[in-house]
């Protein structure tokens, strides 16, 4: 074999083909393959393995009787580092050993390798500075404020903990008692400075305000309406236990519930005949209608009977389209009045305003109905007491 001018030595097996710092082919192996490429004429000639020196350079024969043997090579094989693959091996008579990249590997250029080395050595300088970042400078580079950085480094608590941000941007963690003290809540031994009572339920109204000592006032008259009771068995009434004092319940009537009647129920009293004059407790009439008419205070079509607290008296009929309404200022507590914001037409229709523009309260125990839709003006309140309802149809 003629002596070669360009010697290409395989790097020591201590040199890894992939540089662990960059993940790329190391410089020594890169130069090795580049020399192979150049010695092969850059792919432009048929230079064979005989024209390349792979391995240590030949030792010239010094004529001293040692080396330069004349034996026969029977097999040539090649091993390569990770990232390279050998084909055509072993060569036992004639052939070519071909070295190629393993899938996923490549040899960078010198410029690319330099860029990779620089990128690795400066990989922690992502803020544009000249030195690698540590945790503190990294948080600052991300825009952390003083208090934000303090939150970032806050230790994990071992129990429920409350956080206080101090005026100097430091952070203090506290347990519940310490936190209550810090915010002025103390330990729950504070004083109530004022108690007020308001509201009406079933006719009873709670009023008053206590600032030091005293009592609230519960006044009014308890109003019990049928809606306050659940459905009961037929023919029962609300009464105390039979013959005993106790809590009333709904029960059947018994003889003891009926008082003794003191009037005469026998003799002539049970056989009254003829017409009894009004002065004698009768009606002076012989039929029910005539008897009622004789006792009635009504005089005009449409009159009603009202009670003034002492007697049953006449409530004169109102004018057309008026309705009967309660009014505590009148003798009977009733009066005929025009409907507020509503109208009964001659064609049988009831009309009401579509907007409620003033506060309105449905009387306790009453229900209300409106033809909708209804708009309640801003700031206006419609009060529906407990047990009452308001229907919009």
How is this structure best described in words?
This protein is an alpha+beta fold and 393 residues long. It has helices at residues 27-39, 110-121, 135-141, 146-152, 176-182, 288-295; strands at residues 18-19, 24-25, 84-87, 98-101, 162-165, 171-174, 195-196, 200-201, 204-207, 209-210, 217-220, 236-239, 249-252, 304-307, 312-315, 322-326, 334-338, 342-344, 350-352, 355-356, 360-361, 368-370, 375-376, 382-383, 390-392. Among the domains are: 18-57 and 75-121, no CATH class; 139-151 and 159-182, no CATH class; 230-257, no CATH class; 296-338, no CATH class; 344-393, no CATH class.
List its salient traits.
single chain; 393 residues; alpha+beta; 3-stranded antiparallel sheet; 6 helices; 14% helix; 20% strand; disordered N terminus
What's the topology here?
Layout lengths: L17 E2 L4 E2 L1 H13 L44 E4 L10 E4 L8 H12 L13 H7 L4 H7 L9 E4 L5 E4 L1 H7 L12 E2 L3 E2 L2 E4 L1 E2 L6 E4 L15 E4 L9 E4 L35 H8 L8 E4 L4 E4 L6 E5 L7 E5 L3 E3 L5 E3 L2 E2 L3 E2 L6 E3 L4 E2 L5 E2 L6 E3 L1
